[in-house]
């Protein structure tokens, strides 16, 4: 029997008369790296929010690392984490102070040593003691990732993990995440608009449109299925309704 990090069945979310997510079902095996793709309004943010326990589903079930997310949220939360360059850390605190505060919230043992490990691994030394509000966008992205790795999550959810990074640093970050995943066995679910990044990093792709799951598969399989040269061309086909079938 396959061991799943995520099992999502019939997941829906309504905001009044607006259906943000509509009957989405998928599974993600432990240790996989999977991309969640979709244009603006596709339902990615709402889906991620439900996976994190920030929003309750209108219907459907979510099992995270074998636990029901709605019923046993507090068993699950210590085992996962989330990073987004669009969620600000407190600006007046230094990067080190932010990591220390979040580390205490997460109950991280040997916190000072853990911050030191991440300082070296993510090359934070130059700006670790600066206020976050004075950091560049790329530096903030690296601090946000360090925050998400503090508790050594078994499931790591990432929103645009290389946003605001220059190409060289972005490539280094992708390599770091691959190494982390291989060393820890963690599962990674990332939302990204960078199709080249997805092709390089991900075992599987989930494509949302209008709140529904409209396609799924390995990047190379989707490229072949659509008869295209790149995943970006596949994404544009889906976004522009060149293929409108919906998965059963």
Automatic annotation (TrEMBL):
Which Pfam families does the record associate with it? ABC_tran
SUPFAM superfamilies from the UniProt entry: P-loop containing nucleoside triphosphate hydrolases
Which InterPro entries would you find in this protein's record? AAA+_ATPase, ABC_transporter-like_ATP-bd, ABC_transporter-like_CS, ABC_transporter_ATP-binding, P-loop_NTPase
Chain ranges of the ABC transporter domain: 6-235
Its lineage reads: Bacteria, Pseudomonadati, Pseudomonadota, Alphaproteobacteria, Rhodospirillales
Query: What organism does the UniProt record list as the source?
Result: Magnetospirillum aberrantis SpK
Q: What is this protein called?
A: ABC transporter ATP-binding protein
For this chain, one GO molecular function annotation is: ATP hydrolysis activity
Assigned protein family: Belongs to the ABC transporter superfamily.
Task: Name the keywords, alphabetized.
Answer: ATP-binding, Nodulation, Nucleotide-binding, Transport
